[in-house]
């Protein structure tokens, strides 16, 4: 894992991968303070260096051999300990919300829900197990081949999501699943089909699955770690990302295709989601030679 990730993380800062929800980070200097924000279910695996993360009163150290998982729409504080001889290098993932929803629902269907525990699934750090390290390594290795990235990477993400949700840290999340939550997948498909509409509302989405708007918004955010409108934004940005890579259109046209009226607003949202401005992101991924359309 260390060799595979270090080989890809050659430049300082964020290095995108052919997958929208996976990237690498390399820092050769310490960062005394950083304010971050998490949405959805994210994963960070440290290869070298140290990152100290504080959430509320919880403080964990993510260094070589550890994995941090975070769930929900939450702010956190972090410091990074790094040097040129031992840079901070990490693999980061944001698991797709639809994959998270479908995996949680399958736990219900197979009767593998866990009982409630005192463990908090919002913020968790533990040693990286062999069972989870294996699909993570296969995911990183798939970036080197377009066919592997297109066919095998989604399968790796499925296994990664499954392994994470099977851990004790997510017993609370699994035990919170209700039968009505199977409708959330239908809601997500409706959002995906209508993400381009500027008039799309919580009321319209909730009516499609016969839930009250307040109940729908609460269940969506509680289980998927982001609001329905945040998910719509994610869908729009992914559409723009694909246009930039496959059609090689201008940033302005990509913003318009994604439903943005303002290119500057699009640039800010894209940079926040993918770690780089749109044009630089597209140029960097094309250099990898493994663009996934």
Describe it.
Mean pLDDT is 87; it is low at 114-118. By secondary structure, this protein is an alpha+beta fold. It is globular. Helix 2 packs across helix 4 (146-166), helix 3 (130-142) packs antiparallel against helix 4 and helix 7 (202-208) packs across helix 8 (213-224). The relative contact order is 0.13. The protein has two domains: 2-174, Jelly Rolls (Sandwich), CATH 2.60.120.10; 178-288, Homeodomain-like (Arc Repressor Mutant, subunit A), CATH 1.10.10. It has a six-stranded antiparallel beta sheet. Strands 3-8-5-6 form a four-stranded antiparallel beta sheet, with no helix packed on it. 48% of the residues lie in helices and 22% in strands. The protein has twelve helices and ten strands. A hairpin with a 2-residue loop joins strand 5 and strand 6.
């Amino acid at each position: 894992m260390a060799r595979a990730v270090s080989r890809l993380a050659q430049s300082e800062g964020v290095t995108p991968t052919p997958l929208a929800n996976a990237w690498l980070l390399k820092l050769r200097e310490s960062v005394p303070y950083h304010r971050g924000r998490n949405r959805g279910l994210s994963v960070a695996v440290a290869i070298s260096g140290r990152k100290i993360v504080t959430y509320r009163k919880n403080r964990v150290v993510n260094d070589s051999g550890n994995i941090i998982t975070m769930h929900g729409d939450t702010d956190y504080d972090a410091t990074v300990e790094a040097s040129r001889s031992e840079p901070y290098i990490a693999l980061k993932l944001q698991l797709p919300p639809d994959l998270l929803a479908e995996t949680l629902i399958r736990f219900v269907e197979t009767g593998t829900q866990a009982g409630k525990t005192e463990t908090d699934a919002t913020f968790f750090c533990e040693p990286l197990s062999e069972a989870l390290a294996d699909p993570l390594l296969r995911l990183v290795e798939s970036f080197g081949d377009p066919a592997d990235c297109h066919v095998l990477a989604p399968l790796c993400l499925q296994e990664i999501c499954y392994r994470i949700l099977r851990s004790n840290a997510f017993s609370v999340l699994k035990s919170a699943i209700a039968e009505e939550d199977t409708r959330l997948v239908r809601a997500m498909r409706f959002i995906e089909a209508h993400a381009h509409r500027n008039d799309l509302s919580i009321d319209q989405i909730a009516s499609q699955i016969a839930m009250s708007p307040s109940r729908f918004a609460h269940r969506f955010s509680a289980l998927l770690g982001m609001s329905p409108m945040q998910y719509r934004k994610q869908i729009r940005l992914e559409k723009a990302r694909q246009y930039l890579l496959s059609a090689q259109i201008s940033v302005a046209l990509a913003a318009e295709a994604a439903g943005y009226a303002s290119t500057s607003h699009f640039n800010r949202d894209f940079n926040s989601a993918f770690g780089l401005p749109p044009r630089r992101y597209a140029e960097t991924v094309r250099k990898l030679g493994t663009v996934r359309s």
